[in-house]
């Protein structure tokens, strides 16, 4: 084909080669697993690959490109983890738009897998095959994963793409039915290129955010956006260890009041980076790591921060 659909994807030469060769040789697998860190181009690669699969020289490519990018192509189903809120399933973007305070991370639900089965029960329209993409496939509970397994065994005229950080994060029986496509962290120059091309070059002026992203442009963008939601006053307070137990308790109360759970988890990462640069004390990093584990087990956030900040206060006193 004359159109290079993978042109926007930077720094993932191996993935591009594997996917383009599959199409050229007419050996497209029924299921793929795109594995690698968040924010390095896995979702973009999926969209590029779909454009390649759906490409028809008799039709306008720009129209195809826009429909795939907007997710409104009739032969494409894009599945994201959701929150359950007042009888509705909301994606992370929809929950943020509605101002929903999120207590637990979103997950791919059994009802969504049933929706995939229903979608694949229809023949493809305007494309040679149906394609289903599952973002953050690692968030599937066992029941949802087992339901998906039946679909993977008999996908019909379709290709499924599971996006996950590692094969180990997904049920082994699912992994065994997918062809793995590896994605890697980008070098400094490639990260700068992506941020500049996407209009996010201001992030290059924030080394703490870039260090936190560790070769992931998408993570850098997400971290910078998260940074903008936290008041400068709160950020200044938390990047210094409390000097008294009372100030630690007051700060914990403020964090719990101002930030939802996802923002608190991001703050833990940011503080680990910040404190390590300031002090190189592993004891502080360990306390913050414990805070992350407790937050992920849905412990009461205010209590988690009270214990963590009081521990930091004790460490700073020597």
TrEMBL record:
SUPFAM superfamilies for this protein: P-loop containing nucleoside triphosphate hydrolases
GO terms classed as biological process: DNA-templated DNA replication
Annotated TM spans: none
Cited InterPro entries: DNA_Rep/Repair_Clamp_Loader, P-loop_NTPase
Pfam families per the UniProt record, alphabetical: DNA_pol3_delta2
Protein name per Swiss-Prot or TrEMBL: DNA-directed DNA polymerase
